[in-house]
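[step 3/7] fold_predict: job queued, chain A
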Amino acid sequence: MTPARTRIAPSPTGYVHIGTMRTALWNLFIARQTGGQYLIRIEDTDRARIVKGSIENLIEVFTPLGLQPDEGPVLVKGKIEYTGEHGPYVQSERLDIYKKYAQQLIDQGDAYYDFATKEQLETIREEKRALKQPMKYDRSQAEFDVAKALARIEAGEVAVIRLKVPEGETVVEDEIMGTVKFNNIEVDDQVLVKSDGFPTYHLAVVVDDHLMKITHMLRGQEWLSSTPKQILLYKMLGWDAPKFAHVPLLLNADGTKLSKRQGDVAVGDYLRRGYLPEALINFVATLGFNPTGDREIYTVEELIEMFDLCKVKRSGAVMNMEKLDWMNNQYIKQLSIEELAKHAEDFVQADASNETVQRALFVERERVNRLDELQEKITSYITEPAYDPSIIIWRKADAADARVQLEGVLALLRDADDTVFGSVENLEKEVKDYIAENELSNGNVLWPLRVSLSGMERSAGPFEYLWVLGKDQGIARIEKALTLIA
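[step 4/7] structure written:
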């Protein structure tokens, strides 16, 4: 298998979109399964949209997800550095390279200088709209004589360089979408170099992908319509194009394109809310792709081994938050008590190294979908609850019965060996044997016991609370409950 070279090329315009994460994962999978390389290249030619700190944020978000590049930007002691032999990996540092190939296209007659003003372009668009014609530039302000064009620029006129789209048809062989044909009459003479000297995406992406030896170009489905322009550029420059794969859109629950207005789209937001990196990878990587169809949980190694562009669905994939919550819960439940405590450090206002806190986290991991829910869940373990004593009474009993049952269990626990408190199972056996031997009702005993320990009508079971609290604290809470209903 030929080693692949894949890349993502985000713009430094703010947060990392969840769709960017999926594209990065699929690029990583292709590179890893072929023994190739995965790159990150920064596309910063749209200077007006640059947001300071975006590259640092990208690296910080991608690092826990295992998406650090083989080539491209990395953080070293808080500073951005670049690794790899095909740099620069920032487009604004590659302007002389683009200039060279733009000049080649001019010399070949495959591109031209154009002097249309914004006002003239808007007039052309209005005329096209009125006639219901393709929104293609009419070359009315083109200057095909290079010497004349340069003289006009020297005299102070402003020009751009445009692609001269030939007649005919351009065919895109897409790894996901299949064969897509475009009539060149509908393909616009794309601006390749703006009047400020910066290239547009279309020229830069072709030059960069060729020089960086990219073999697979994965990007969002919305870019499919622009692919003919890039294929034409590859042909004009005498280069082989990479394999194209346009991935389906991510959708909101209502089927519309995923947007910030209807929920989180920033990867950092998901991590900050307590979605485990492993769960987020599993969920995002299988949006529009499922390796087997008979299960939902996969390791990263399995995803790398099984990933196949042929199995990617052409239709959009819905961001099902209920599924993400369920999946995250599955991963949380698989954590050891030490691993859970480590993950919880940034989400709880308590000492995660404390044994009581760790046991509380371990018990409540069953009942949370995100790590940011843990603080509320463990509060009743580490803070003595205040509650209405009426909730201690089992609905089929009265206060007198609650007192009798609590006094009986209290006596049992006082006499119990410390080893009984060593596990939830030991405690459950001890109390349930007591209930059976005395022919008592589970509800009459366990309801007041659980509420006395938790202070809540709904909580984990009494045996979990006794195991977390330990003998002394468990007994103290039952004694307090008895005073409340006395």
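[step 5/7] annotate
The longest helix spans residues 462-484.
The two ends are 78 Å apart (CA to CA).
exit 0
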